[in-house]
């Protein structure tokens, strides 16, 4: 059986992208998965440099929603991902929604990571919202993607403490460290066929340790 072929989509620095690539090259995914291509929608995003450093093909598809529909833009991404026979799509800091057409094309096999314990603190400002609310625990969530924002079935969550002295600049890196562990682990569970979705509940065969 061949390795799972992953397609990654990013808008920014791509640290989670690189964590997955490292897991494929020398970590828990070494015998299980490969990252075939990176798609980026921002011209100067550093994620493309990371792809270049790992000799992974990357494609810039700049988003301009004034001139095209979401489906037209997503079709451009589908064409690239199909070219590389991608079976699992990972959103690694991708700052746009994907369409229902896109989700259906990959049979729902699309994962996203969010720097909070969903369903709390959805959206772009998770750390700020977490601190403003005064919760004592935040964390990371890896979930399958559906048509709603930060909503799909949850695969893995990891709690991270929030301290009274925290700012976005201190809380963010503490959570990011666990993001880099949680996303590869979720992919490993997918590769091992240990994930089973019933309604919106993801049931996992066996114990999961991060």
List the helices and strands and how they pair.
Elements: E1 4-10, H1 15-26, E2 33-40, H2 47-53, E3 58-60, H3 70-83, E4 88-91, H4 100-105, E5 110-114, H5 126-133, E6 137-144, E7 154-161, H6 168-191, E8 195-198, E9 201-204
Parallel strand pairs: 1-2, 1-4, 2-3, 4-5
Antiparallel strand pairs: 5-6, 6-7, 8-9
Helix pairs in contact: 1-6
Can you describe this structure?
The structure is a single chain. The chain is α/β, with parallel strands linked by helices and about 210 residues long. It has 2 domains: about 1-105, 3-Layer(aba) Sandwich (Rossmann fold), CATH 3.40.50.170; about 110-210, 3-Layer(aba) Sandwich (Rossmann fold), CATH 3.40.50.170. Helices cover about 35% and strands about 25% of the residues. It has 6 helices and 9 strands, in the order βαβαβαβαβαββαββ. It has helices at about 15-25, 45-55, 70-85, 100-105, 125-135, 170-190; strands at about 5-10, 35-40, 60, 90, 110-115, 135-145, 155-160, 195-200, 200-205. The strands form 2 sheets. It has a 7-stranded mixed β-sheet with strand order 3-2-1-4-5-6-7, sandwiched between helices. Strands 8-9 form a two-stranded antiparallel ribbon. α4 (about 100-105) links the parallel β4 (about 90) and β5 (about 110-115). The protein is globular, with a radius of gyration of 17 Å. The two termini are about 25 Å apart. The model has no long low-confidence stretch (mean pLDDT about 95).
